[in-house]
Design goal:
2 copies of one chain form a homodimer. By secondary structure, chain A is α+β, with helices and mostly antiparallel strands. Chain A has 6 helices and 12 strands. Chain A has a single domain, classed as Endonuclease/exonuclease/phosphatase (Deoxyribonuclease I, Chain A), CATH 3.60.10. Chain B binds a DNA duplex through loops.
DNA sequence: GTGGATTTGG
DNA sequence: CCAAATCCAC
């Protein structure tokens, strides 16, 4: 049994206590973190060293991803050779020997404001590069799990009122198409298997009392390749974490594999 | 018996917990606060309303003074008619009916950087106006206590190494002379009665590990008029408060009157 | 609304 | 070093 989790924490320095609680509660084997918002050297020292290791791709102030994984897991960090994907600290690729599985931890560019052509162009280009990288892995007959914050509202039901997002970089049709193209490589979006449309959200904006009004969106996902899909026995979104003191605007979520 | 205390808290919104602890420990009848750093409307609601009242002279972000006093004390707030003293929220004058005593709560301008003529000139002018106000009270045969942060190192022994302060607005000779002229109105500096030179400090800079190296200065005082001097039985500086978590850079201090 | 960087004041 | 403001991104 293996539990793999993901969480956009919106600053690990502010949220490490919540992450500690999540680790204790869910006991994941692997936790993908996004938006750690710090440099590698600033990553707080909260992890139980006897239990977990961590690999960090951080940068100053913005973005930043990290993977916390149990000590007994043998991982290989794979270098990503893409100017676009490496220009900001938004991706990590690891290979798990024990599961024979590649895992991509992603924090997709937001792309707003939509009227800034640089922003949306970078997002589209970034999705293209993620597509190319994923394609290469899949064509080489390897298994792949992509987890993280995709900053896209793929399905109309992934928002209370989708019309409000049509003119936003998260609901933009070009972006949604890029995400769908990524899935069409043969990756299954697990939220589509385990929940019915509109059943869950993963993000509630801090503004406009979105949490109190349950005005959320679903933008955090796991995408998995066919051979491993059959091993997925469970998927949970931990909605409670949005109601904590000083919460992240995203909630953690996790899957369980029977391997 | 009456206890009157004073404390430059360096933000009441950050320090109200410490102030609460101080009130519980010392149980003063009156507490003069300086550098509350907020508007009246932002003053936190931490005071036990059944025990204390508060009068606030605040402003946005900088300076600001307040007086917390026991409910049974009858005070009159006296309007200060001085352009200079009222241009920034640095002074409060109250009259205590029960003790027949005027109390001035002061947060003197810092005056640095010393090479900015506006800053030091304002400080000197401000001291002149404080002198005039105090003189008026004293000449009218009323008793006066001035308490607070005078931002002056009057005595060479009030710093570990006074030479380091000679070129600073706190050790500047003109400023020291202004403070001495204020005392020469007939006010006794209680720290000179209860402690020997160099025995106590009231401020340790956050910078350069001043607290850890005990590199402090004495700049917070009570000045009292002759008739009330005979009633002062005790003076204490609460040095421990500098060692708390998230301390103010100043410590609280208090006097005890046998009336 | 929240977090980070930067600037200003001390 | 610390606190507040302003600005920026999301």
């Amino acid at each position: 049994m293996t539990i793999i989790a993901s969480w956009n924490v919106n600053s690990i320095r502010v949220r490490y206590g919540h992450v500690e609680n999540f680790l204790n509660k869910v006991d994941p084997d692997i936790l993908l973190l996004q938006e750690i918002k710090c440099m590698n050297s600033e990553f707080p020292d909260f992890i139980d060293q006897s239990k977990y290791n961590v690999t960090i791709n951080g940068q100053k102030a913005k973005y930043g991803v990290a993977i916390i994984y149990k000590k007994e897991i043998d991982i290989r960090i794979i270098q990503i050779k893409s100017q676009t994907l490496e220009s900001q600290a938004r991706v990590q690729l690891i290979y798990l020997k024990s599961l024979n599985l590649n895992i991509l931890n992603v924090y997709t560019p937001n792309g707003n404001p939509i009227n800034d052509p640089d922003k949306i162009q970078f997002k589209l280009k970034w999705y293209d590069e993620l597509y190319n990288l994923s394609k290469k892995i899949i064509l080489s007959k390897q298994d792949l799990l992509i987890g993280g914050d995709f900053n896209v509202i793929e399905n109309i039901k992934d928002a209370i009122n989708f019309q409000e997002w049509e003119n936003d970089a998260l609901g933009n049709l070009q972006v949604r198409t890029k995400f769908r193209e990524l899935c069409f490589l043969g990756l299954t979006n697990l939220s589509r298997i385990f929940f019915k449309p509109g059943q869950i959200f993963s993000f509630w904006d801090y503004q406009r009392a979105c949490w109190e009004r349950n005005d959320g969106i679903l933008i955090d996902h796991f995408l998995i390749s066919p051979k491993k899909l059959q091993n997925v026995k469970r998927l949970e979104y931990e909605t409670n974490f949005r109601g904590l003191e000083k919460p992240s605007d995203h909630i953690p979520f996790w899957l369980k594999l029977n391997i």
